[in-house]
Amino acid sequence: MFGNLFEEEEDDDVSSNPSRGRVTKVGDEPPPPRGRSNLCGIKNQGGTCYLNSLLQTLLFTPEFREELFSLGSEELGCLEDKEKPDAKVRVIPLELQRLFASLLLVDQQSASTANLTDSFGWNSSEGTNQHDVQELNRILFSALEHSLVGTSGNTLIHRLYHGTIVNSVVCKECDNISQRQEDFLDLTVCVCGVSSLEEALWNMFVEEELFEGNNLYRCAGCDRLVTAAKSAKLKKLPPFMTMSLLRFSFDFTKCERYKETGRYSFPQTINLRPFCEQTDGEDSDFTYELFSVIIHKGGCYGGHYHAYIRDIDQLGQWEPPEEDCKPKTQKKAKERVKEACEPKLQEDDPLSVLTAIIAQEPSKSVLLDQLGQKLLDKIGSSWSKKFRKHCGPIGKFLQSHSDVFMLVSHGTRVALKANPPCPVTEPPSPAEPSVNSDPSLLSDSDGAENPEPDQSLEPEQEQGSHWFDLNDSSVTSIRESDIEKQFQGRESAYMLFYRKTQLHRPSEALNNPQYKVPLHLIQMAEEENRKLQQAREEFEATNNTIELRLHLAHSYRLENGALQPIDKEQNGGTPMSFDRRKTVGDLRLAIYQMQELWEGDMALTVAKSLPAGLHLYNSLTDDSVSLYSAGISTNSDLFVWNGREVCGATVLTGAEWEPVLLTVVRPFLGEDEDLQVEDGVGCEEQAGGFENGGPGLKKEARGFAGAVTLGEVKEALGEHKESVLCQEHKGGKKGEQGAGQGGGASGWRVFPPDDMQRTLKELSLKDGDALLVLEPQSFDCSMFSLNGDVVTVTTPSDCRWLQVAFRPHDRGGDGEREKEEEREKIKVPATGNMLMFEVKQRAIEELQLHPGKPLSAQYCLRQVDCTGKLLPPVCEEVSVRDAGVRLMTTLILCPGKAPKASQLFLHFSVGAAPSAGMEMDIIVENTCTVKECLKAMLDAVGLDGTFWHLRRLDWCEEVGEPLIDEDASLSELKISSGDTLVVTEGQLPPKGFLKLHVWLYLDTRNNLAESNLTNNGYTGELEAVTPRDVHSPPLRNVGEVEISDEATLEDLKTQVLTLSALQDVCVPTIGFMRVWQLEGRRLVRILRGQQQTLRKLKLASGADICMQQLLTEEDLGPKEVLLNIKMGVPGERCYYPPEELIWEASQDSSPRSLRTCLAAHFGLSPDSLLLAKYQPDKHTWEEISNWNQQVSKKKKKKKTESLLGAPFHLKDGDTIGIKNLLIDNNRDFVTLEDEQGQQMLRELAEERRKGGEAAGSNGVGSQKKTGPNKSRKPEVALSINVGVFR
C-alpha cells in the first residue's frame, strides 16, 4: 500500500565520513577506524536507513544477539556450502551473525549490509528504495522464523517478542462474555487525537466501546440484538515490547497523505499493569524501560530514519555532547592560551606587532594577503605608513627575519617558528584537506585536542548505560533528555522499544564485545582487523609520498630577471620521491647523498616556474620541521644552491621580485632583408631573437623583476633618455583611432614621466603585456603619429590587404567544407578609405564566379568573431575604416543582401530563444516601428493575426522584456544591427498596465500556505523540482493579475489576495506577506517598500512574482538582506536545517559585519566562524574571507569591501554555509549531494553536447528545455525471500 511513501530525502540521508574529501593517489582509501564512541555504524546503500536503524536496535538487544550467536554451523550450515544443490544453508541468520560480529569486533567506522540484503533476495536497485521500518520489522521477524524452523532457535522470535491480547464483548442483559485472543509482535498505537503513549494505551485497553442505539450487538445467549460493551486487555506480556506509532494517515477529505507532527510524549519507564487482564504479581512483572527509539525525519513523501539507542552492555565510550561542555571549558581554555601565547605588544616594534598578530590567531598562522589588514586593525596604521620607510616591504621584512617567521601552505601563510602550526590547529589550505595531517606531529597535539576537563562540569547521568544516536555511518553521544526533542515535529519518534526491568545483564557481559560471540567469528574479525591495519599503513605510506622536482644551480643561469636552464632539453628538473612526514634535514641529507660532488653550503628554496622563467621564494632553513609543516606538497619545485648566487649573479628572492615577461615592441621599417614582414607572418632575427609583432613592428620577449621601476626597465633596454615608452591602448575617446577601430590602425598610450618611478607591479603590468619603445625620430615616419598622450600606428603599404573566403552554402562534412573554403580564399588589396562595395566587387572578380552561381548583388560580406560565428553583414556604402574592419583580417563572402546605412540587420525566432545558428534574418529600416517590424517578421514566416508581440533577448540569451511601445521606432529603442528579437504569442497589456504571473511559495517549514489552499474551481499547477533545481522552493501557480505600474506594492498585495485560489489564505495584515520576484522559477529578490510604485520597483509586464506567507510581520529596509543560513554538522558532510536571517548591511556590508551578525545569532565568537556562499547552479561553495582593502591609485581612497558587490554579490535568498572551527576541523563545505550534483551537471553537459551534435546533423534546432515533472518510483512491496527448511 505504501510503496514509496517513505522515499528517502537526498538532503537528509547523508552518511558521515570525515575522510571522504581525501584524495588518494593509488587505489581506494581503506575504511576509517571507529570514532570516539568506539561503536560501529552501518553504511547506507542509498535508501536503507530504515534497515540500518532496525539492525542496530536488534544488535543492542543483547538477549536477541546472544540467542542468535548460540546457533552453530551444525544447525545453520556453512555459507561456503550455499551454492551446493543439496545443502540446506540458512543464509539469513548466518549473514546476520556475521554482520553483528563485524559491528561488535571489526575496527571500522561502518559496516556493509550488502551480503545481508543479498541473502534477502534483493537486487541492486532494491537498496535504493525506501520502505517503512514498521513493515520491515514484521517481515524480517517472519523471515527469521521461517529460516530457523527445525533448529533450537525456532522459537527465538516467539519467546522474545510474542504477546497476546484478549478482546471481550460483555452483554449488558445476560452478562454473557464472548472472548477472542489476538497475537502480536508489536503494538500499533494511535497518535492522532492523543497526546501521549499512556493515553493511547488507556483508550485501547481501559476504555470500553458501547454497542447501543443503531449499533447493537447480537448476543449468542440472548439470540437477539442487545446493548453490549467491548474491551481489550493484554493477556501475555513479552520480554520486549515494541510500540509502532501511527504517524502517517490519509485525509479522505483532501485525498492526500499527511504526517502527524503534534506532541506525543512517551515515558522512559512504563508500568503496564492497568492494561493487563491479570494484575496479580510484582510490579517488576509489568514494568518496562525504554532502550531504543527509531526516529523518522521528514514528511509523508520522503524522509530519513535513525535511532536513539541505550548501550545496555556499555560497549561504547560515552562522552558528554560537545555543545554541553563548550561554553564553560572553551572560554577558560581560550583565556589560558591567550595568557600563554600573547606576547607583550610594542606598537613601535614591527617584530613585536607581527609576532603578536600571528600568535593570537587560532591557527597560529595568517594568510600573507591578510597580514597587512590585520596589522591595520591591530595598531590603526598601515605598514607602508608606519614601518616601510625604515624596514622596507613587509615581505622583505619577513624574509630578513627568517629565524622568527616561516612560510607554510605553499608560501600562502606565515607562521612563527617558535610555535609552528600543527595539523590539529592549523586550518588547512584548499589544496590540503585536513585529513592529510602530519603524522609526525600527532603525538604533540594530544594536549591541544583534549584540554584538561573543567571540574565544575558534573555529568548529568551516572557512569553506565548511556544513549547514542546511530545515524547510518555516524555514531554520536546524546543525553537522555534529548529524547524529549523527538516528541513532536517533522523529526519525531516512530517506533519505541521497551524491555522488562527484570532482565539483568551479567557482569562479564559489560564492556566485553566478545561475550558469547562464537570463536570462528572472533577469529574472522581479528583477521579482518589485521587486513585493515595493513591496508591503512600501506595507504598512509603511499599517500604521504610526494613527488618533488629538484633544480640544481649549476644547470641554470640568470637571464631576463629569472633563472633559465642552460640546457633547454633538461628544463624539467630532477624528479625525486620523498616522504613528507620526514624533516627538511632528512631531505637535505638525501640530496647530499645524491650529489656526491657538492661542496659548501646547501640551501633549499621553494621555486615556481613562471612565463619569464624559474623564480625563487622562501628558503627552508629549519631542518627540524617536517615537509608538511613547511608547506611542501606534491609537484613542488625546489632549487638547490648556495643561497647567495647562481653562476656569479646575485638572485633576488621573494614574491615582490616575481619576474614579469613583457613583449618589447620596436619600429621596423624593413631596411634589413632578413627581417622583412611578409603577409603578417613573423620572422626571427638570428642574433636578437626578434619576432614580427605586427605591421611594421618587431617584438622581443624580455623578463624584468616586478619590483623594478619603469625607468630601470628603460635603462635595461639600452634606450636614450628621450625615448618614449607606450602601453597598448585598450580604448579611447570618441574620434581617436584606438585598437578597436578598423583600417589597420592601432593605438598606444604614452607613459607619463611620473610613471618612470613606479614599479611594474604598481603599474599592473602582467605577463604578455606589450611595451612599445619609440625614439624621437620615429615620429618623422608616417607610421607613427602623436595625438596628446596617444600614439597611433598606421599600417604600412605592404600590409594593406583583406582576405575574403567564399562560402556559398553549407556543405557536407566539416573536412570537405574546410578544403573547399581553402581553395576559395583570395587576398584583395585594400586601404582604410576603400569602400566595402569595391572590396566585394574585387573579390567576386578574383574568385571568377561563373554564371551558374547567384548574382553578385545577392552577395554580402560578413565578419567572423573569435568563435567562428558570422557577424551581421557590413554596410557596403561606407569605407573599410568606418565599417570597423581591420586590415589583414578575413571576411566571408556569402549569399544574402547587405543592409544600407539606414537599415538594420536583425535575427529573430518564433516562440522561444533561438539556438546558435538556428535563428532567421531580416533587414528592416531603422526608422520603422515595432509594429511594422513585427508584421514583416510574421510575413517572413507565414503567420498572421494580431495575437503576437516582440521581446528582446536578455544578457543570458533568454527571452526577456517585451517591446511595450509598438509605435516607437527601432532606433528610438536603441536596437542595432545583430540584435535578436523573439516573436512571442500573446497580446501586450494596455500601456501603463502590467500583467503579472502569480505563484505561491509552499514553505516546507510550516504548512500554513499549503493547508489553506483550496481549489475553488482553480487547479493550481505545482512546479516539480528537478534534480538540478533541488535548492529551488516548491511553487504553485495561482493565477495572474493586471495592475497599473503606478500602483504601490501594498496595492499589489491586496489585489493578489483577491485571487480565487487564495481566498482561504488569511493574514492579519499585508505585512505578513512577502513578495519575491522570480527569474527562471528561482527567487531572485524581495520587493521592498509598501508605498513604492511598481514602476520604481522595476517590475515589467509578464514578470513572475511569488507570494510567501509569513508567521511574523515584516518590512525590510533597502539594505536589509534575507539570507538562508546553514550551520555545518561537526565532523559530517551535512548541515543542520536552514534558518532565515535578516542582515542589516546599510552601514557596513563587509565580511566582518556578516560574521559579527552570525556570531550574535549563534552565540559564538566571530573569529571561530568560517563562511561560504552556496552556488546552487554549480553545486559549489565560495568561501568568504576578510580580504585586504584596496586603495585607488588616483583618488587615494579605500574601496569598501562589500559583500553586496563583486565577487560575491549577496542578495535575498542566498544560502550561507557556516563552520564552527572550534569544534569542526573540516573546512570543506561540499556535501555528498553537491558532488552528485556536480557529476550530474557534467553528465548533462555531455548529453547536451552529444544531443547538439545529433541535432546539428539532422538540421533540427534544440528547444529551450524545461524540467520534466518528477515521476515517483513505482510502488514496490517489501519482501524477503527465504528457503524451505521444513
UniProtKB/TrEMBL annotation:
UniProt keyword Hydrolase present: yes
Biased composition regions of type Pro residues, renumbered to the chain: 420-431
Pfam families: UBL_USP40, UCH
Any one of the GO BP annotations: protein deubiquitination
Organism: Xyrichtys novacula (Pearly razorfish)
Biased composition (Polar residues): 434-443, 1260-1269
GO cellular component, one term: nucleus
Signal peptide limits: none
Region entry Disordered, spans: 1-38, 418-467, 728-752, 1246-1286
UniProt keyword annotations, A-Z: Coiled coil, Hydrolase
Domain (USP) ranges: 40-501
UniProt keyword Nuclease present: no
UniProt-recorded Gene Ontology molecular function terms: cysteine-type deubiquitinase activity
InterPro entries hit by this protein: Papain-like_cys_pep_sf (IPR038765), Peptidase_C19 (IPR050164), Peptidase_C19_UCH (IPR001394), UBL_USP40 (IPR057763), USP (IPR028889), USP_CS (IPR018200)
Gly residues bias spans: 737-746
Composition bias, Acidic residues: 1-14, 446-461
Domain of life per record: Eukaryota
Annotated protein name in UniProt: Ubiquitin carboxyl-terminal hydrolase 40 isoform X1
Ranges in a coiled coil: 522-549
